[in-house]
Amino acid sequence: MICGVNNAATRRYLYRFLTTMVFYVVFLFGAVWAFPRYHPTGAVAYLLAILPALPIIGGIVVVGLYLAEEKDEFQRTVLIQAMIWGIGATLSLTTAWGFLEVFKLVPHIELYLVFPLFCALTGVASGILKARYR
Asked: Which of 30, 49, 100, 119 is in Cβ range 3.0-4.6 Å of 106 for a Cys bridge?
């Protein structure tokens, strides 16, 4: 997959992003496995709980690095526009859901799901923008 990409910035982005996602999966499974077995407390519990968030933060940094390294202005613009649409849709949906939660009309949604929602909506926006610019 990465070998077939001609753009060096995209190749670096894919390698870096996939690496962060491997760490995410390992840290997430580790935390989910360790908490019910060892019942950590104090600083260890906080560290273990925050560990899966670190690769997500790394993934955000990876996107920033890609935007800085990408030479093709059109590719950068499409990604930036997709992210703006993704942010707008995420903020709109989570705000509306939050008000529905306040009035007990829908169940509570955990905050860690906001980032995957943003990624999914950015992906949808990216597909629409790429189709639009063909």
From this structure: 100
